[in-house]
Amino acid sequence: QVQLVESGGGLVQAGGSLRLSCAASENILGFDGMGWYRQAPGKPRELVALVRSVGTTLYADSVKGRFTISRDNAKNTVNLQMNSLNLEDTAIYYCAALIGIVYWGQGTQVTVSS
């Protein structure tokens, strides 16, 4: 059972930046991909960004140009650099590991204030 631990969430003013990190309990080289999802109150969970095992990335239209996903295979981590945050980015952010099925982290709260 893969365990994922997120860190880096918090409160930030609109226009600011945050960096989320997700540490996996296993070697991520064997994962099909790793990604970040988010869920705002009253809304379904949505994909934010994904990095596949071959290194290609996928972003939600709403975060393109502002967020960057990266993976560090040596540290078994995946990071999400979030810049130019706005109020609509407020949500719980979940790390996900894709290994046939999806493993989820416990989530980290990101709150953007005006």
Count, helices? 0
Largest sheet: 7 strands, mixed
What gyration radius follows from the Cα positions, in whole Å? Answer: 13 Å
Distance between the termini: 40 Å
Structural category: mainly beta
Percent range of helical residues: under 10%
Hey, roughly how much beta strand do the residues contain? over 45%
Please provide the ordered H/E string of secondary-structure elements.
Answer: EEEEEEEEEEE
Low-confidence stretches: none
What descriptors fit this protein?
11 strands, 4-stranded antiparallel beta sheet, 7-stranded mixed beta sheet, 114 residues, globular, mainly beta
Report on the structure:
- This protein is mainly beta and 114 residues long.
- 0% of the residues lie in helices and 55% in strands.
- It is built from no helices and eleven strands.
- The strands form two sheets. Strands 2, 4, 5, 6, 9, 10 and 11 form a seven-stranded mixed sheet that branches. The chain has a four-stranded antiparallel sheet with strand order 1-3-8-7, with no helix packed on it.
- Strand 7 (67-72) and strand 8 form a beta hairpin.
